[in-house]
Structure formats: structure tokens, C-alpha cells
Design a protein that fits this description.
Elements: E1 7-8, H1 9-15, H2 22-30, E2 34-36, E3 39-41, E4 47-48, E5 53-58, E6 61-67, H3 77-81, E7 84-91
Antiparallel strand pairs: 1-4, 2-3, 2-5, 5-6, 6-7
């Protein structure tokens, strides 16, 4: 699989700096707390592509982001922020 095709969900969440470790990103995926285009995903190896909409909990918020780029490494924050656009943020009580 090439970068143009897609990237593992856990890797993308880690590259985009939503989680401090890839293990944490994998755990949130396996627990079924991530949705891609409205469908619950329970596999960390699910392939993410540009244009997918991801919904997942982060701290006390529910993050909804659109994948803008796949990335090739876990770079600095400015590089990570270019990988997604925030669609909406909600507080989950």
C-alpha cells in the first residue's frame, strides 16, 4: 500500500498529534470510539483516505475532523495541523 492509497487509522491519529502515542491511538480505535464517515470502526488498521470525516473523543470534547493529508511522519505541530481541518467541536457532558 502506498501513501497515495491511504494510511492506517492509528498511525494517522498519531501523526496528526491527537494522541501522544500510537498505542493510545490504537486503543481508542479498538474500543470502537472512532467513526469514519459515520460508521463505527473497531480496527486500528482501517485505511484512512483524504476526504474521510473522523469523529472521536479527545479529553472532554468530541472532535470532528476532515482528513486533508495523509502524512509520512509525526512531525511538528504545524505540520500535523495541515493534515486535517476541524469541522466542529462539541462538549460531551
Amino acid at each position: 500500500m502506498t501513501v497515495e492509497d491511504g494510511i492506517r487509522l492509528d498511525k494517522w491519529l498519531w501523526y496528526a498529534r491527537f494522541f501522544k502515542s500510537r498505542g493510545l491511538a490504537s486503543a481508542i480505535c479498538v474500543q470502537g470510539k472512532v467513526r469514519i464517515d459515520g460508521q463505527v470502526v473497531r480496527k486500528a488498521h482501517y485505511v484512512v483516505r483524504v476526504g474521510n470525516v473522523l469523529t472521536f473523543p479527545k479529553a472532554r470534547e468530541v472532535r470532528v475532523v476532515r482528513v486533508e493529508a495523509l502524512g509520512t511522519r509525526r512531525g511538528p505541530a504545524t505540520e500535523a495541523q495541515a493534515m486535517y481541518s476541524i469541522i466542529e467541536e462539541e462538549l460531551s457532558n
